[in-house]
Design a protein that fits this description.
Elements lengths: L1 H8 L7 E5 L3 H9 L6 E5 L4
Parallel strand pairs: 1-2
């Protein structure tokens, strides 16, 4: 854990984010539960 924190402090890590429209929320939660998502999953509203 100390190594991970050191990498974060040094700015050597990066966050990978996958964006999904809110209407795919049910599928995304299933993928998350099944371990298919390897990054951060962010749901967004596509409201105009």
């Amino acid at each position: 854990m100390n190594r991970v924190l050191r990498i974060a402090v040094e700015g050597k890590g990066r966050t990978v984010v996958e964006r999904f429209p809110m209407q795919e929320a049910d599928a995304v939660f299933e993928w998350l539960k099944d371990g298919c998502i390897r990054s951060r999953a962010v749901l967004y509203n596509d409201v105009a």
